[in-house]
Amino acid sequence: MRGWGDLLEMEPYFIYVGSYADQAHAGIHWLRFDPESGALSPAGSISGISNPSFLAFDQSRRVLYAVSECEEGAVVSYQVNAGGGLTEVSRQSTAGASPCHLALDRTGTWLAVTNYGGGSVSLFQVRDGGVLDPCADCVQHTGSGPLSNRQEAAHPHSTTTNPTNGQFIVADLGADQIYGYGVDEVGERLVESARTTIDPGTGPRHMAFHPTGSFLYVVGELNSTITTFVFAVETGRFERRQTVSTLPLDLITHNTTAHIQVDEAGRFLYCSNRGHDTIATFSVGAEGTLTQVAWTSCGGQTPRHFARVQGTPYLIVALQDSDLIVTMTIGDDGVPHLTGQSVRVESPVCILV
Question: What is the C-alpha to C-alpha distance for residues 180 and 182, in angstroms, rounded to an integer?
Fold first, then answer.
């Protein structure tokens, strides 16, 4: 990995931004990011997709995937061209309403999509060039939670891939459940391999694995917590270890959490607070446990999503209700600080480096 002193030798990054926009207006934007200064500048955008609220990237195929978060949900794949531009190569129904998240397996062969409104998880096979087959399987979740305004039914909110065994791990905000799924490649279907219940009213939203694959961190949107699970390789199941608040302990405010990420060295974990409008920093102990370190203002409202730029000290944040993308720099103590660099994008909700 390059050191930060080598940034002058690095090529600029492209930062892709998913947003809420109708089909007639630009919904996916790409920005140039200068790793020397942290500056962002618009490079292009594309319309033709409604509410591309979450994105994923296949590095080997240079294909970008986007959900279309609508009542008649869809997933779209794009070839990434020279200069960062996008060419659509396939579009398929997700067989469920309001898809809001998606993830590839380790081989790039299978793509899992969570349908928040439909309460289901859809599976797609990926062909050469990133072309998606029609939905191969759609697993319906059931259940509910104690908060009737958000947990009246199952609402799968995200999926990630277990780096240890390749499972898809799905967080269901509505049912307060974490699911593990394997893929039966012969039958082209999802097979449940694990299920874990989290505290009632948590509303698990996004998840992040420690780089070792030993720990899974789950952010609770509805109660502003992070729960640490230990992954047991022998059983393929998750065992709860710790739950901590994402807010200062003496603070009482309306807040919902959004995204969570562990740095590439596994030393620090970051979480976005919407309402408090901060990035919370935690140190990660040897046993995976978290300790509160700091809260940094994002300089705007509703930090919906963020991403570390690997190999650099930078973190990019999407401020949904301020229509801004801002750059933060992370010090040796792991705490991010605003650089003053920003660019305007309407209703940004996902950052993909």
Answer: 7
Q: Sign of the CA dihedral 8, 10, 11, 15? A: negative
How many angstroms separate the CA atoms of 177 and 200, rounded?
9
Separation CA 304–CA 257 (nearest Å): 8
Rounded Cα–Cα distance for residues 245 and 62 (Å): 38
Half-sphere exposure of 143 (CA within 13 A, CB side): 21
Q: Please state whether the predicted TM-score (pTM) of the whole model is above 0.85.
A: yes
Q: How far apart are CA 302 and CA 175, in angstroms?
A: 24
The Cβ of residue 62 has, within 10 Å, a number of other Cβ atoms equal to 13
Sheet with 55-58: list strands edge to edge.
55-58, 63-68, 74-80, 86-93
Q: Is 130 helix (H, G, I), strand (E, B) or coil?
A: helix
Query: CB-based burial of residue 1 (10 Å sphere; 0-12 exposed, 13-18 middle, 19+ buried)?
Result: exposed
Q: How many CB atoms lie within 10 A of CB 95?
A: 21
Q: Would you tell me how many other CB atoms lie within 10 Å of the CB of residue 37?
A: 12
pLDDT, residue 11, reads 57
- The pLDDT value recorded for residue 28 is 98
Q: In the chain, which stretches have pLDDT less than 50?
A: 1-10
**211-250: b or e for each residue (b if 16 or more CB lie within 10 Å)?**
eeebbbbbbbbbbbbbbbbbbeeeeeebebebbbebbeee
